Amino acid sequence: MIIIPENMPMLLWRYREWGNLFLVVNTIINLIGNLKGENECWLKGLLLEELTSLNRSWNFAPPIIAKSGCTALNYNKAEKAYYLIRKEMGTMKFQIPASKESPLENPAFVIKNFDGNIRNIEVEINNGRAEFKRGIELDTEGKKNLVIWIPYSSASKTSFKIFSK
Fold this sequence. Notes:
With 165 residues, this protein is of the alpha+beta class. It has helices at residues 8-14, 19-35, 48-59; strands spanning 65-68, 70-76, 81-86, 92-97, 104-105, 108-112, 121-125, 128-129, 133-138, 144-149, 153-154, 157-164. A hairpin with a 2-residue loop joins strand 7 and strand 8.
């Protein structure tokens, strides 16, 4: 019997390196469900299609394209996050050309060279205000990095704008 903790979604965000274990466990559960003749196998409220999209967003993440105010360092598969370097204090604009094969699911961004107030940060997606969570982490040199997580899904080109209000 496989026991899945109740707080698995939070554990996945907090301990992103568990993501691959989560997908392996889910695959086993789905195989068992298919052997029993079940059409759908649920894991914490996600259908197989949703988990497939989440898996593709982690393992085949779409690229990130910096437009202004930042330099894109690409996707860090181990941390399930996009890394950016902030060039200047102004607005950062970038795009992620997601697709069905490389969807965008709840992206996380780590922004290096951040020295502002996180309370003033705003995020827009396709010119609309976005809900997000934010925090600060210190790198190995003691410098602040802004971490942003956005509950958002897309299978098409998405434009992001991060700025201080």
